[in-house]
Amino acid sequence: MLVQRKDLNINLRNKMEKENKPNRENEKKPLEAPKKVEASVSEAPAGVEKKSEKKELQKERSIKSEAIVETHNVPISTKKSAAICKFIKKKKIEVALAELDLVSKLKKAVPMKGEIPHRKGKIMAGRFPKNASLSFIKLLKSLSANADYNGLKEPVIVEAIANIGSRPYGRFGQARRKRTHVRLVARDLLMKGAKK
Question: How is residue 176 annotated by DSSP?
């Protein structure tokens, strides 16, 4: 009886394989048609031209009127960041970069309020926030690149905001670290929204 069952199983497998073979061959034939391959090769240059036209149209549509940079939890003082934001606001990006470079070299002070000593120049009181100015230089370079990509000719910083970020506890839980959220927005000088 066992021998008969094995023979039946083998016979059933053979029948199933014979039935399935023609179906698989029929499925493969339309996929391997040489005409379709030739047509796709001949249409490739036209497709490339269409893609480049689409990219140009997308660039024209995606031209923005402003460039934005936002960062969260930068390890710098919020008080110094707010002073720097006030210092660079309403200036061109190149001018702000040059002035912050002088601040990082301790040659120009950032005006600050509070019990801070007086400095030389047209300001009353000020400091030289070196670490914060180096962080802002990176942000301004990124803002400049965004402005170039968006097609702004003469970008001016119209919005500079520094807010308190999350303040994690330091080691052993005694001190709290300084963290700041910074948002910078530049618009074109020629536009009505930007002020000189």
Answer: B
CA angle 139, 145, 148 (to 5 degrees): 140
Instruction: Output the CA torsion 117→122→128→133 (10° steps).
Output: 150
pLDDT tens for 44-87 read 455 556 677 777 766 665 567 899 999 999 999 999 999 999 99
**% the chain with pLDDT above 90:** 47
Q: Is 82 exposed, middle or buried (0-12, 13-18, 19+ CB in 10 A)?
A: buried
Asked if 186 contacts 152 with a C-beta cutoff of 8 angstroms, the reply is yes
What phi and psi, each to the nearest 5 degrees, are found at residue 130? Answer: -65, -50
DSSP state letter for 109:
P
Q: What are the boundaries of each domain within the chain?
A: 2-60, 64-188
CB 130 within 8 A of CB 106: yes
pLDDT confidence of residue 8: 65
Residues 57 and 149: beta-carbon distance below 8 Å: no
Q: CA-based Rg of the chain, rounded to a whole angstrom? A: 33
CATH number of 64-188: 3.90.470.10
Find where tokens 């618009």 sit: 187
Taking CB atoms within 8 Å and a gap of at least 24, the contacts of 12-17 are none
What is the tens place of the pLDDT at every residue in 128-180?
999 999 999 999 999 999 999 998 989 999 999 999 999 999 989 889 999 99
